[in-house]
């Protein structure tokens, strides 16, 4: 049964009206005025990019390892989601030095996301030349580059250090991976060790690098507030990242109405969390922003897919639409999308076959082996995806396994470039 999106249609009419767009500007002015004299910031910056946060926090092994038996075998006869190719096409070879370089470049996107930042400044951050990056951003901010001021704000927050809970979680995950590296292929082990070394190098070097940088916190804060009052969507979004939950949603709403995709994703996720707690008063708003985020963002597709599978909008599950958007999310590099796909009941027509699941994991493995997900996620992704491929391979017949590999090759031909672009992965 399809989900009733009539609530969302009413929100569309509301947000498309000229009066409401004008109200968004007034809201921005009021929000900025309310925080103008706060001086020091509170809160912690949300990690970017919005495309895929905590992609391997959950292990889907339990849901993925169930046998789909006769159901999957019968469904394998229908047309596959990706047409098979004639031969295997391995991922483009990437030497260890190039792999490490990509891991370092990925860190600038963890900090800045898709904010418009000159490549030279991103390179400075990747190479831990933080003072140089901060000086460059400050010069741009003084020249009225509002995006640069937001980037400067995010760099300053990064210099205050990773949240202890986040660091402990990552350290624990990496420790589990390290305990198993003796049993993985040599090339994977080499890359896991390299990525962990880069992370430790970054943690050790960041404090010294940041100590050499100068941040005018008052000027940065004032710049954010002035830009938000003028309707700068990126500043509105960043102020939301620094605010308490109630104020954050107001900032994100203003930025989302102005078309800023990360704000649409954060707003949709915030409304989903509220809805899941039993408060369904904003269900119409949630539906609208979930659809908006899904149209514009890989992470938005994941959120919408999860909602449709789990009936977060108090409607019957819509597995057909969920299967579609989650497959799109996979081919945009969202590494946790197969987990949700695997939760679709095996007897549902939208459920992925084992051959599809193999091709999805193989596709994501290629992205991971290019360093697209950065130092924090490479080790856990590498081990998790390898486990999934091994389990799926054991369940497939030789002919079905070859078919799965052809699906993966064709998927990489058709979607690899867009996935790499989504993750800024050269």
Characterization of the model:
This protein has 426 residues and is mainly alpha-helical. It has one domain (6-422). It has 21 helices and no strands. The protein has helices at residues 6-15, 18-34, 61-64, 69-75, 96-112, 119-126, 130-142, 146-159, 164-178, 186-211, 217-229, 233-242, 245-257, 261-276, 283-296, 298-310, 319-330, 337-342, 354-369, 374-395, 398-422. The longest helix is centred in the middle third of the chain and has 26 residues, at 186-211. It is globular and about 65 Å long. The two termini are 41 Å apart. Mean pLDDT is 82; it is low at 1-92.
| Termini gap | 41 Å
SSE order, one letter for each helix or strand = HHHHHHHHHHHHHHHHHHHHH
Give a quick account of the main beta sheet: strands, pairing sense, barrel closure: none
Number of strands: 0
Q: Number of helix segments?
A: 21
Provide the helix percentage: 55-70%
Oligomer: single chain
Count of the domains: 1
